[in-house]
Amino acid sequence: MLKDMMGLSEQGYKNLKRAALAVFLANLTLLFPFAVIIGLIITLLEPLTSGGPLDTARLWLLLGGGLAAAGVYIAAFKNEYKKTYRVAYTEAEKIRLEVAEHIRKLPLSFFNNKDLSELTANMMADCASVEHTMSHVAPQMLGDIAIAALACLLLGIYDWRMALALFIALPLAFGLIFLSRKAQEKFGERHVLAKLRVSDQVQEYLEGIKVVKAFGLSGEKSVALERSLRDMKKEAVKFEGLAGTFITLASMILQAGVGLVTIVGVSLLTSGGIDVITLLAFIVISAKIYGPITVILTLLPEFFYMLVSQRRMQALRRETPMRGAEDFVPADFAIELKNVCFAYNEDDVLHNISLHIPQNSVTALVGPSGSGKSTVSRLIDRFWDVKSGEILLGGKNIREIDPENLMRYMSFVFQDVVLFNDTVMNNIRIGKQDASDDEIYAAAKAARCDEFIKEMPDGYNTVIGENGSTLSGGERQRISIARALLKNAPVVLLDEATASLDPENEVLIQEAISELVKERTVIVIAHRLRTVMGADKIAVLENGRLADSGSGEELLARNELFARLYKIQQDSLGWSVRK
Ligand code: ADP
Question: What strands, in cross-sheet order, belong to the sheet with 537-542?
């Protein structure tokens, strides 16, 4: 049960058991000095109770025993440290990697409803909570429970009446903590959510810092951040206050046992039920044994708090990843959409689209903004799965192809090129991890990148800033084309740039693209009709429906929407800023 509750691996659970045993053993060694103290008390009291001489030999023996106990104690705690902390961090690392791997395989529909900060919190904070529980909570709790149970048993055998007095408050104290569990979890959940809102706000604040500065929004934007921080503080105080109150009440109930032991002990002593040594031993033990039990009481709420994070992690891990054949090799690279319907949320954005995209041809998707062009391309590369209908690649439904396998046959040239803070060389290498340097130079040349890269301070080894901020829009696009050329995939998805490029860049990109589309199945999302008039086939989309398809000439002659779009764009070509 504990394994599932904490979401541990087999090995993690085994390690947790070992850690609990190490804590138990370490706590057990704490009993040795304690036994030495009781032995000392008995030896010192003996002359008073039985009138005999002081046993000095035994005193020395006990002193030696005390020193030996200290040695064992150190060794046991070293063992506990190794068994608890090291394994906790190893397990947390394993869980984080597993979650990251799992997230990678989830469909984009999952990310559509989640924001990034929540997923980051899942991977960092929720995992940290499991990590903390494994290192600081669960082993200590289990070890202390074992030691308390052992003490209970031994004391019960020694004198059951006194043991009963000692432990009678126990069910009451624990009952109180368990009764408060629901409330604690509720407040814990609220605290976790408040923390999430803060990380959301911090992220938004940092991401928008440019806009914040440019528009002098520092006041307005920090208000939202401040509010979320204040909220988090309030929730934290409430949660801690609640847990603290119950822990204090429970330990008070527990401590009342010391009084009860004294009362029961004295009455048993006067009636001759026990001797004075037993009474003293129980009073000393009662002061000591409540230590580990109080620790359990304080750790239980932490454990409940961890369960909140754990449940969120479990929910994430239960999301079904996209699967399919991992070794499918398409016979050809024609693409066929058959009655495809699709919805991001409730409302359909694509209605019954059927389209044949022949192999080694250029097919352009055109239509007004919002008509579904990008959506169609996202379905072809299986970033999302269709709602109904099917998409075939080489005759096979892509739902039956593992997304990673499918990606092997596809290259992308997007508008928003993602560049990493690394060398130009490595940024191109993304297209093919094991490419030789010569292959990279060749791809860069073909994509008309070679010239501007050579002019950079360290040529191909120049580190480009975060997301390529040192490059112009046209240069970024050409790098992305170089990547696609390097990958050399048979299907290319091309998102034509909307932003106008300067004429020189435009010519260079045109040349680079001409290299890219040779002998490949190409799907172009076109924003400007002029650039795709020469495509083999143009599909006109309107409100998520396929309005028409054919060559540019044919469409111009018979499709009203196409002719209208064409005219608008022709007219707008020459806009300029005038006074
Ligand atoms: P186009 O590429 O032709 O401009 P899109 O395919 O981007 O059109 O969008 C088609 C419709 O789907 C639009 O109504 C748009 O608002 C909606 N849409 C696009 N992306 C998402 C998304 N991630 N979540 C929800 N709706 C979306």
Answer: 410-413, 491-495, 521-525, 362-366, 537-542, 545-550
pLDDT score, position 559: 87
CATH number at residue 504: 3.40.50.300
No. of helices (H) and no. of strands (E), the chain: 24, 10
Tokens of 149: 């149970």
User: pLDDT tens digit string along 395-441?
Assistant: 999 999 998 889 889 988 877 777 888 899 998 998 888 889 999 99
Nearest in space to 39 (alpha carbons), one of 54, 53, 59: 59
Q: Are residues 286 and 363 in the same domain?
A: no
Q: What is the pLDDT of residue 467?
A: 61
User: Could you tell me if the CB of 379 is within 6 A of ligand 1?
Assistant: no
For tokens 């070679």, the residue is: 450
Q: Which residue has the tokens 């408050």?
A: 169
pLDDT of residue 278: 82
**What is the number of alpha carbons within 13 Å of residue 114 lying toward its C-beta?**
19
For ligand 1, whether the C-beta of 72 sits within 6 Å is no
Both 141 and 257 in a single domain? yes
Query: Does ligand 1 have an atom closer than 6 angstroms to the CB of 241?
Result: no
Q: Which of 283, 317, 351 is the last residue of a domain?
A: 317
557: domain range? 335-572
Tell whether 577 is covered by a domain: no
Q: Do 424 and 460 meet the contact criterion of CB atoms below 8 Å apart?
A: yes
Q: Give 175's contacts (C-beta < 8 A, 6+ positions apart).
A: none
Alpha-helix residue ranges (DSSP H) falling in 180-275: 181-207, 209-214, 218-270
What would the DSSP string read from start to end of 464-518? P-GGGTTS-HHHHHHHHHHHHHHHT-SEEEEE---SPPPHHHHHHHHHHHHHHTT
Q: What is the number of structural domains in the chain?
A: 2
Give the strand pairing for 335-343 and 388-393.
antiparallel
377 lines ligand 1 (CB under 6 A): no
Tell me how far apart the alpha carbons of residues 63 and 371 are, in angstroms, rounded to a whole number: 88
Query: Which residue has the least CA distance to atom 12 on ligand 1?
Result: 349
Sheet holding 388-393, edge to edge: 348-357, 335-343, 388-393, 396-397
Q: Which regions in the chain score pLDDT beneath 70?
A: 216-221, 466-469, 497-501, 571-579
Let me know if residue 470 belongs to a domain: yes
Task: Tell me what pLDDT residue 220 has.
Answer: 64
Contacts of 83 (CB under 8 A, 6+ apart): 15, 18, 19, 21, 22, 139
CATH number at residue 177: 1.20.1560.10
